[in-house]
Design goal:
The chain is mainly α and 263 residues long. Helix content is 70%, strand content 0%. α3 packs across α8, α4 runs antiparallel to α9 and α6 packs across α9. The chain starts with 23 loop residues before the first helix and ends with a helix.
Length: 263
Protein backbone atom coordinates (compact mmCIF):
# COMPACT_ATOMS: atom_id res chain seq x y z
CA UNK A 1 0.00 0.00 0.00
CA UNK A 2 1.38 3.42 -0.93
CA UNK A 3 1.41 5.87 1.94
CA UNK A 4 -0.19 9.21 1.19
CA UNK A 5 1.74 12.19 2.42
CA UNK A 6 -0.26 14.27 4.90
CA UNK A 7 -1.60 17.62 3.80
CA UNK A 8 -0.82 20.93 5.41
CA UNK A 9 -3.88 22.47 7.02
CA UNK A 10 -4.69 26.15 7.48
CA UNK A 11 -4.20 27.64 10.97
CA UNK A 12 -7.97 27.93 11.46
CA UNK A 13 -8.29 24.16 11.23
CA UNK A 14 -5.46 23.30 13.61
CA UNK A 15 -6.74 21.09 16.50
CA UNK A 16 -6.97 22.66 19.93
CA UNK A 17 -3.81 22.21 21.97
CA UNK A 18 -1.43 22.08 19.01
CA UNK A 19 1.42 24.45 19.78
CA UNK A 20 2.73 24.93 16.25
CA UNK A 21 1.02 26.49 13.26
CA UNK A 22 0.76 23.86 10.56
CA UNK A 23 0.95 25.92 7.39
CA UNK A 24 3.90 25.11 5.14
CA UNK A 25 5.57 28.53 5.29
CA UNK A 26 5.66 28.52 9.08
CA UNK A 27 6.88 24.93 9.29
CA UNK A 28 9.74 25.64 6.90
CA UNK A 29 10.64 28.82 8.81
CA UNK A 30 10.67 26.97 12.14
CA UNK A 31 12.89 24.24 10.71
CA UNK A 32 15.28 26.87 9.31
CA UNK A 33 15.45 28.66 12.68
CA UNK A 34 16.11 25.37 14.46
CA UNK A 35 18.91 24.50 12.02
CA UNK A 36 20.52 27.87 12.72
CA UNK A 37 20.51 27.11 16.45
CA UNK A 38 22.00 23.68 15.86
CA UNK A 39 24.80 25.16 13.75
CA UNK A 40 25.64 27.90 16.26
CA UNK A 41 29.29 27.84 17.35
CA UNK A 42 30.18 26.70 20.90
CA UNK A 43 29.94 29.50 23.45
CA UNK A 44 31.73 30.20 26.72
CA UNK A 45 29.18 28.14 28.65
CA UNK A 46 29.91 25.04 26.55
CA UNK A 47 33.61 25.41 27.23
CA UNK A 48 33.15 26.09 30.95
CA UNK A 49 30.94 23.08 31.59
CA UNK A 50 33.64 20.72 30.39
CA UNK A 51 35.84 21.57 33.41
CA UNK A 52 32.91 21.30 35.81
CA UNK A 53 31.98 17.94 34.34
CA UNK A 54 35.47 16.59 34.90
CA UNK A 55 35.50 17.73 38.54
CA UNK A 56 32.13 16.14 39.32
CA UNK A 57 33.07 12.92 37.57
CA UNK A 58 36.10 12.53 39.80
CA UNK A 59 34.02 12.41 43.00
CA UNK A 60 31.47 9.86 41.73
CA UNK A 61 32.19 6.20 42.61
CA UNK A 62 33.54 4.12 39.76
CA UNK A 63 30.74 1.57 40.15
CA UNK A 64 28.22 4.29 39.32
CA UNK A 65 30.16 5.23 36.20
CA UNK A 66 30.15 1.55 35.23
CA UNK A 67 26.36 1.35 35.54
CA UNK A 68 25.95 4.49 33.45
CA UNK A 69 28.24 3.16 30.73
CA UNK A 70 26.31 -0.12 30.69
CA UNK A 71 23.07 1.85 30.40
CA UNK A 72 24.30 3.73 27.34
CA UNK A 73 25.39 0.49 25.73
CA UNK A 74 22.06 -1.18 26.49
CA UNK A 75 20.15 1.78 25.05
CA UNK A 76 22.25 1.65 21.89
CA UNK A 77 21.61 -2.07 21.51
CA UNK A 78 17.91 -1.40 22.02
CA UNK A 79 17.87 0.98 19.09
CA UNK A 80 20.01 -1.27 16.94
CA UNK A 81 18.22 -4.56 17.49
CA UNK A 82 15.52 -4.31 20.17
CA UNK A 83 11.75 -4.47 19.85
CA UNK A 84 10.80 -1.17 21.51
CA UNK A 85 10.72 0.62 18.16
CA UNK A 86 8.27 -1.94 16.77
CA UNK A 87 5.56 -1.41 19.38
CA UNK A 88 4.22 1.87 17.99
CA UNK A 89 2.16 1.35 14.83
CA UNK A 90 2.79 3.94 12.08
CA UNK A 91 -0.11 6.33 11.51
CA UNK A 92 -1.10 5.80 7.88
CA UNK A 93 -3.44 8.76 7.32
CA UNK A 94 -3.78 12.24 8.75
CA UNK A 95 -2.81 15.85 8.23
CA UNK A 96 0.47 17.19 9.58
CA UNK A 97 -1.36 19.01 12.38
CA UNK A 98 -2.95 15.79 13.65
CA UNK A 99 0.36 13.97 13.44
CA UNK A 100 2.18 16.65 15.40
CA UNK A 101 -0.54 16.69 18.04
CA UNK A 102 -0.03 12.95 18.49
CA UNK A 103 3.76 13.37 18.58
CA UNK A 104 3.59 16.14 21.19
CA UNK A 105 1.20 14.07 23.29
CA UNK A 106 3.84 11.33 23.33
CA UNK A 107 6.48 13.84 24.44
CA UNK A 108 4.28 15.11 27.28
CA UNK A 109 3.46 11.62 28.55
CA UNK A 110 7.04 10.35 28.50
CA UNK A 111 8.46 13.61 29.81
CA UNK A 112 6.18 13.45 32.84
CA UNK A 113 7.03 9.82 33.48
CA UNK A 114 10.74 10.56 33.23
CA UNK A 115 10.44 13.52 35.59
CA UNK A 116 8.76 11.42 38.28
CA UNK A 117 11.34 8.69 37.77
CA UNK A 118 14.17 11.18 38.14
CA UNK A 119 12.71 12.74 41.26
CA UNK A 120 12.29 9.43 43.04
CA UNK A 121 15.75 8.27 42.00
CA UNK A 122 17.36 11.57 42.98
CA UNK A 123 16.00 11.20 46.51
CA UNK A 124 17.55 7.76 46.86
CA UNK A 125 21.25 8.55 46.52
CA UNK A 126 23.79 6.74 44.39
CA UNK A 127 22.01 3.40 44.05
CA UNK A 128 18.60 4.63 42.86
CA UNK A 129 20.16 7.33 40.69
CA UNK A 130 22.22 4.67 38.96
CA UNK A 131 19.07 2.59 38.39
CA UNK A 132 17.34 5.65 36.91
CA UNK A 133 19.85 5.83 34.08
CA UNK A 134 18.80 2.69 32.14
CA UNK A 135 15.14 3.40 32.97
CA UNK A 136 15.45 6.82 31.34
CA UNK A 137 17.04 5.18 28.30
CA UNK A 138 14.00 2.94 27.84
CA UNK A 139 11.62 5.90 28.15
CA UNK A 140 13.51 7.79 25.45
CA UNK A 141 13.57 4.88 23.00
CA UNK A 142 9.81 4.26 23.44
CA UNK A 143 9.09 7.95 22.93
CA UNK A 144 11.14 8.10 19.74
CA UNK A 145 9.29 5.09 18.37
CA UNK A 146 5.94 6.77 19.06
CA UNK A 147 6.98 10.11 17.55
CA UNK A 148 8.31 8.58 14.35
CA UNK A 149 5.20 6.39 14.08
CA UNK A 150 2.99 9.48 14.46
CA UNK A 151 4.48 10.79 11.22
CA UNK A 152 3.81 7.46 9.49
CA UNK A 153 7.24 5.85 9.65
CA UNK A 154 9.00 3.27 11.77
CA UNK A 155 9.67 -0.44 11.85
CA UNK A 156 12.63 -2.71 12.31
CA UNK A 157 14.52 -2.11 9.07
CA UNK A 158 18.12 -0.97 9.18
CA UNK A 159 17.22 2.32 7.54
CA UNK A 160 14.51 3.18 10.07
CA UNK A 161 16.69 2.27 13.03
CA UNK A 162 19.45 4.48 11.67
CA UNK A 163 16.97 7.35 11.44
CA UNK A 164 16.23 7.02 15.16
CA UNK A 165 19.92 6.75 15.95
CA UNK A 166 20.66 9.94 13.99
CA UNK A 167 17.94 11.78 15.94
CA UNK A 168 19.35 10.60 19.25
CA UNK A 169 22.87 11.56 18.23
CA UNK A 170 21.88 15.04 17.11
CA UNK A 171 19.85 15.75 20.25
CA UNK A 172 22.78 15.09 22.57
CA UNK A 173 25.82 15.92 20.48
CA UNK A 174 28.24 18.49 21.82
CA UNK A 175 28.11 22.00 20.39
CA UNK A 176 31.29 21.22 18.47
CA UNK A 177 29.85 18.02 16.99
CA UNK A 178 26.27 19.16 16.30
CA UNK A 179 26.95 20.44 12.75
CA UNK A 180 28.39 17.06 11.80
CA UNK A 181 25.48 15.23 13.44
CA UNK A 182 23.01 17.41 11.52
CA UNK A 183 24.86 16.76 8.26
CA UNK A 184 24.70 13.01 8.93
CA UNK A 185 20.92 13.25 9.48
CA UNK A 186 20.50 15.23 6.27
CA UNK A 187 22.54 12.66 4.34
CA UNK A 188 20.27 9.95 5.73
CA UNK A 189 17.18 11.84 4.58
CA UNK A 190 18.71 12.26 1.12
CA UNK A 191 19.87 8.59 1.12
CA UNK A 192 23.47 9.64 0.45
CA UNK A 193 26.45 7.52 1.57
CA UNK A 194 24.38 5.41 3.97
CA UNK A 195 25.79 2.32 5.71
CA UNK A 196 24.35 -0.94 4.44
CA UNK A 197 24.34 -2.57 7.89
CA UNK A 198 23.86 -1.42 11.46
CA UNK A 199 27.38 -2.59 12.27
CA UNK A 200 28.76 0.05 9.90
CA UNK A 201 27.37 2.90 12.00
CA UNK A 202 29.82 4.67 14.31
CA UNK A 203 27.78 3.82 17.40
CA UNK A 204 30.80 3.96 19.70
CA UNK A 205 31.34 7.60 18.80
CA UNK A 206 27.64 8.23 19.35
CA UNK A 207 27.81 6.54 22.75
CA UNK A 208 30.69 8.76 23.88
CA UNK A 209 28.93 11.91 22.66
CA UNK A 210 25.74 11.01 24.51
CA UNK A 211 27.48 10.29 27.78
CA UNK A 212 29.57 13.44 27.59
CA UNK A 213 26.41 15.51 27.09
CA UNK A 214 24.40 14.20 30.02
CA UNK A 215 27.14 13.34 32.53
CA UNK A 216 27.18 16.77 34.17
CA UNK A 217 23.43 16.95 34.64
CA UNK A 218 22.99 13.35 35.78
CA UNK A 219 25.96 13.47 38.14
CA UNK A 220 24.42 16.48 39.88
CA UNK A 221 21.38 14.30 40.52
CA UNK A 222 23.53 12.21 42.88
CA UNK A 223 24.17 15.12 45.26
CA UNK A 224 22.45 14.48 48.63
CA UNK A 225 19.33 16.51 49.56
CA UNK A 226 19.05 18.41 46.27
CA UNK A 227 19.18 15.25 44.15
CA UNK A 228 15.38 14.82 43.94
CA UNK A 229 14.47 18.19 42.38
CA UNK A 230 17.56 18.09 40.19
CA UNK A 231 16.70 14.58 39.01
CA UNK A 232 13.13 15.56 38.14
CA UNK A 233 14.23 18.70 36.27
CA UNK A 234 17.08 16.99 34.44
CA UNK A 235 14.95 14.13 33.17
CA UNK A 236 12.25 16.57 32.10
CA UNK A 237 14.70 18.65 30.08
CA UNK A 238 16.50 15.67 28.52
CA UNK A 239 13.27 14.10 27.28
CA UNK A 240 11.94 17.49 26.11
CA UNK A 241 15.14 18.13 24.14
CA UNK A 242 15.03 14.72 22.50
CA UNK A 243 11.35 15.11 21.64
CA UNK A 244 11.79 18.51 20.02
CA UNK A 245 14.77 17.24 18.02
CA UNK A 246 12.69 14.28 16.86
CA UNK A 247 9.86 16.55 15.70
CA UNK A 248 12.25 18.77 13.73
CA UNK A 249 13.96 15.73 12.19
CA UNK A 250 10.58 14.31 11.17
CA UNK A 251 9.59 17.68 9.71
CA UNK A 252 12.79 17.72 7.65
CA UNK A 253 12.06 14.22 6.38
CA UNK A 254 8.41 15.04 5.69
CA UNK A 255 9.32 18.18 3.76
CA UNK A 256 11.93 16.30 1.74
CA UNK A 257 9.38 13.64 0.79
CA UNK A 258 6.79 16.31 -0.05
CA UNK A 259 9.31 18.13 -2.26
CA UNK A 260 10.23 14.93 -4.07
CA UNK A 261 6.56 14.21 -4.78
CA UNK A 262 6.08 17.77 -6.06
CA UNK A 263 9.02 17.35 -8.42
Amino acid sequence: MTRTLPDFVPPADVPDGLLTVADETTVRAEVAAWRARVLKAPGLWDKATRGAQDRINRIIPERVHAVITAGVEAMTRGILSGSELLKARPLIDGALAARELKARSAITAHRNTASVEGGVAGAGGFVLAAVDFPALMAIKVRMLGEIVAAYGWGGGSVRERLFVLHIFHLAFASARRRPDALAELERWIAAIDQPEAIADYDWRGFQIEYRDYIDLAKMAQLIPVVGAPIGAAVNWRLVERLGETAIMACRMRWLAEADSVAD
